[in-house]
Specification:
Distance between the termini: 83 Å
Strand content: 5-15%
CATH superfamily of the largest domain: Histidine kinase-like ATPase, C-terminal domain
CATH class of the largest domain: Alpha Beta
Strand order of the largest sheet: 2-4-5-7-6
Number of domains: 2
Number of strands: 7
Structural class: alpha+beta
CATH architecture of the largest domain: 2-Layer Sandwich
Largest sheet: 5 strands, mixed
Order of helices and strands: HHHHHHHEHHEEHEEHEE
Number of helices: 11
Helix content: 55-70%
CATH topology of the largest domain: Heat Shock Protein 90
Length: 375
């Protein structure tokens, strides 16, 4: 039978082909088993013979491919060298067959069958090698993320303790400044000092809320959104004038939320302050629209501006902690907003187009009256 003669011929030439493979194979100097790479060539040669004989199945080929891919991964060897060496083995077998005296039809079938064998082997080997590399990268990434989170936790605890201690003298300075204002209402620069102290106190409160040290159990109260917005706009008045922004409000007087007034104040100040920042580069017609309404039993607050849009690729991560595009920004403002709103079982979302960027806060009907998971 021609096929039996072909198999016998391949077996007879095994030593010669393996030796030629050993001489021509590519082996990195860093490869730990470079002197034994020719043994892989011998295993592939036997794989082809077994495939011709019918004793090597496709599952056997897959198993050998997985084994070699695993070895390459452990050895940290370039997959390109491995693929080259496999193709070298294929080439040597093809050259051997073409030099034989078998009829053309027998050679054609043999070359097709050997090619199929190597194709299956390469597909499984490269695929498995890629999976192993991806798993290694995932494990390294998880380790880096865990280490990063641990460092951030320690840093956050240290910073929170420092800021917490910093707030005590700040409160005293603010108190004495107000007393000075009462005793000497015309004292120069006192209004500026008080405004700057209020801004500093706001930033301290923001940081403490982010670290959860600032979230203290307090009795909830009914918050009239109209009154709260009016108070906040007064607080932000110097920044609004500096940006030369036009503020328009559409607020339902019946719109109320039950909860912690200071927390909700922090949220709205953060969003309006971000809107003012976005309007800095707008030459004219700088607008911020503030809306508040009752919708289907929910309390909804919407704050929009016509400043620079948020790029689409950044929208999914703007509420992540420490993410910021501002020079010198902390990246905790929107994170704090999201944390506070979600503690009331509410939602905060953002939409941004070339024409307008809007933040929508929705307190669901139940959440508008009951805070969830007080910290």
């Amino acid at each position: 039978m021609p096929e039996d003669l072909l198999i016998a011929y391949l077996e007879e030439m095994e030593e010669k082909i393996v030796e030629e493979y050993r001489q021509r194979v590519i082996a990195s100097e860093q490869a730990p088993f470079k002197d034994k790479i020719h043994l892989n060539g011998q295993a592939m040669y036997k794989m082809v013979i077994g495939y011709f004989r019918g004793t090597t199945t496709l599952e056997d080929i897959k198993e050998l491919a997985f084994q070699m891919a695993g070895e390459r991964n452990l050895a940290k060897v370039n997959i390109g060298d491995f693929v080259y060496n496999v193709c070298l083995g294929r080439k040597l077998i093809f050259e051997l067959l073409l030099k034989s005296q078998f009829p053309p039809d027998v050679l054609l079938q043999a070359i097709d069958k050997a090619g199929d064998c190597f194709d299956v082997f390469l597909i499984h080997a490269v695929s498995h090698y890629t999976d192993l590399k991806n798993n290694d990268l995932k494990e390294k990434q998880m380790f880096i993320e865990r280490s990063h989170k641990d460092k951030l936790t320690i840093l956050g605890q240290m910073a929170s303790s420092f800021v917490h201690e910093f707030r005590n003298p700040l409160t005293s300075i603010m108190g004495f400044s107000r007393l000075l204002k009462e005793d000497y209402p015309d004292l120069p620069y006192l209004d500026i000092i008080l405004n700057e102290l209020n801004q500093l106190n706001f930033r301290v409160s923001q940081f403490l809320l982010a670290s959860r040290k600032g979230t203290v159990d307090q009795a909830s109260e009914t918050i009239h959104i109209e009154e709260l917005i009016e108070e906040i706009l007064g607080f932000l008045y110097p920044a609004i004038v500096n940006v030369n922004a036009e503020i328009s409000c559409e607020i339902d007087p019946e719109c109320v939320v039950t909860g912690n007034r200071e927390e909700l104040r922090q949220v709205i100040i953060n969003i309006i302050a971000n809107a003012l920042d976005a309007l800095q580069k707008v030459p004219v017609n700088k607008q911020i629209v503030i809306q508040a309404m009752q919708a289907d039993g929910d309390s909804v607050i919407r704050i929009a501006n016509n400043g620079d849009p948020i790029p689409p690729d950044l929208l999914p991560v703007i509420f992540e902690p420490f993410f910021t595009t501002k020079k010198g920004g902390t990246g905790i403002g929107l994170y704090v907003c999201k944390e506070i709103i979600e503690r009331y079982n509410g939602t905060i979302t953002c939409q941004s187009t070339e024409e307008q960027t809007s933040f929508t806060i929705r307190f669901h009907s139940q959440a508008a009256h009951t805070q969830k998971n007080r910290q």
